[in-house]
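Structure tokens please, single chain.
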Amino acid sequence: MLPGAAFVWWRQGGLPAVLAQVLIIVVTQVALAAPFLASYPKEYLSRAFDFGRQFDFTWTVNWRFVGKDVFLSQPFSALLLAVHLALLALLGLVLWPKLSQSSAWAIIKGGLMPANKQHVSRPSAEEIVAVVFTSNFVGVVCARSLHYQFYSWYFHMLPHLLHLAQLRPAALIAIWLAIEYAWNVYPSTVFSSLTLLAAHLSLLTAVVARLLSLNAKSKAKTA
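Here you go.
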């Protein structure tokens, strides 16, 4: 979700706004960590920021079908990270600018000169929601592992994402039911994890296709 939030901050106030929000995040994190840093600094830092830890295959909801060996392998982890970064680049450089009928360069230039409002307009509420929700969703789709409690990360965003996809009602209901089914199978199975991935990819593809079509539709209306 953070990349989408950073994009919104940039649109709202440019580089100064992004730096201000990052400062708030850092200060908040340090304040919350202060009691632990004062008592057990080494233990806290080593466990709180342990980027080399292994995920437990027992609890995975989304990757059961790949098998334990693949799930724990470094190439699989690197692949998911690469896909995630590629999707964020697609969103940030191509799709999110389309929400305001702008371009990535215009938004970058507007953020570097936030006092000059002629370069780019402030984001609408609809744009903010779409950016933050899609940013969060690609993170879910590419997550190294989803455990059952992680459904709370995005279940409340699904209605808007389904609306954004603009599919036929039957397709929207089928995607929603598939996601609900996969999260309610315990323990997860090969079929339930494949179902979740298929539903996620179907929804993501529909949302991306819809965003890609925005400029084309606007040009057709003005022609």
